[in-house]
Amino acid sequence: MADPAVLSQLREQLRAMETQGFRRRPSLPFGLGAIDSRLADGGLRLDALHEVAGGTSDMADDCAATLFLAGIAARAWGPVLWVVRRRDLFAPGVAQVGISHKRLIYAEAADDSELLAIMEEGLRHRGLGAVIGEAKRADMTATRRLQLAAEGGRTIALLLKRPAREGSDPIGMPSAAVTRWRVTSAPSTPLPVEGVGRPRWRLALARQKGGEGFEIEVEACDATGRCALPSAVADRKAVAGGSANRHAA
Question: Which of 24, 49, 140, 243 lies at a C-alpha separation of 20 to 30 Å from 127?
Fold first, then answer.
């Protein structure tokens, strides 16, 4: 009869080999019950594609969508591949929401087709925590390829969708993405003195696989990539006897 302790140690070694030394979480939670409880996977699936777009074509909403997406990547586990069409990514800005320049790998693509191909290669590499791309056109075939490349891995795929033309809806076309978000700037958190408080965003989950859409207002990502509920909302929940979950975990 084999020693149970030896068998237990062997099982641990095999599990470590299968996961390359760590146990993969199935999803990346926001740490806010008001969001995670309404997501089918209790957070964003790590082995999946997620799309984000600005709520309008306004530059402020484009920046908000970029920082929302960067905050998600900041909370992922390792290096981040960011694929761009233009050299306009403001590194200090994404650093403020938790992505150190030491974690960032930049790739510049000539067009959307090349950008999507680079994203796919990055997802299949399996050595990255997140792969981000910024595209105007990504049809069902392209997004299905990204979703398939992400499945079975531990690299979250994040696609920032920009309008293909003035007035068009970036996430209006069919997509294989598991979640599709719109991010709109909202009035900043009020301060007791004159000045600009913490930015706020209106998050609209337009679609999710296995669940319903919803809208919620949050305070923008902090230096660790975490959002928070606006203080008035958090205080109201606390008074009602619920869990405020003001800061993301």
Answer: 140
Distance in angstroms (rounded) separating the CA atoms of residues 78 and 46: 12
Cα gap 218→246, rounded to integer Å:
10
Which residues neighbour 78 within 8 Å (Cβ) at sequence distance 6 or greater?
103, 127, 128, 129
Helix ranges restricted to H, 51-106:
59-74, 91-95
The single-letter DSSP state of residue 170 is: T
Q: Tell me which residue range forms the domain holding 89.
A: 24-239
Burial (CB count within 10 angstroms: exposed 0-12, middle 13-18, buried 19+), residue 217 = middle
CATH code of 231's domain: 3.40.50.300
Q: What is the pLDDT of residue 215?
A: 98
Residue 16 token pair:
């470590």
Domain count along the chain: 1
The pLDDT tens digits for 72-120 are 999 999 999 999 998 888 889 999 999 999 999 999 999 999 999 999 9
14 within a domain of the structure (yes/no): no
pTM above 0.85, yes or no: no
Three-class SS state of 141: helix
Tell me which long-range contacts 139-144 makes (C-beta under 8 A, separation of at least 24): 139/173, 139/174, 140/173, 140/174, 140/175, 140/176, 142/116, 143/49, 143/51, 143/175, 143/176, 143/177, 144/176
